[in-house]
Amino acid sequence: MRSPLGKALRKSFSSKVQHSLQHFVSVKENSLLPGDLLYVWRFRPNLNFYILLSISQKFHDDSFTLELACSADDFPFTHAALGPNPQKDGSVRFRLPQLYRDEWRPRSGWEPRWWIGPPRQPALENAVALDRALRHQRPLLDPGLPIQEALILIEPQVEDAIDRIRRFGIPYFEHFAHSQLKPRS
Length: 185
Known about the structure:
Blueprint: H1 3-20, E1 25-27, E2 37-44, E3 47-55, E4 63-71, E5 92-95, H2 101-104, E6 114-115, H3 122-134, H4 147-181
Antiparallel strand pairs: 1-2, 2-3, 3-4, 4-5, 4-6
């Protein structure tokens, strides 16, 4: 993501988390990629819930996604974001859109991201790049929307992301916590 957009996105997201998801607090973590933000809700002594704002590391890719995790201690960076089913150690890590898969899966096999501007279509971009390479031309990357136009689009995307955390993420966390209290047979 382009730097001015990333900065505005982080500021907006932090503000919305602070006002809408008060249980979550920002966490400083060395394992984060540059620009990413991590929040924790210390639900009880042996159960933490996490939200990871993951900003695209590609300069020409103005998008972000959200990962959720549940763990007895730190964010499970060593686990892949496979889905909302617990790993062997009992922790989970997955991207938020996995919780509303029925909404997007019939239309596309691509897991959705939040885009600041029109979404990228990898197949189309690959075809254009291949065509240019075959003609011995440098690949052409769409520079995206002008920064001033793109900045206006951040707030609605952040609002949608926070809304989806409230509608899908929080109920998942509560269900996860409840399932941890049941005796295992």
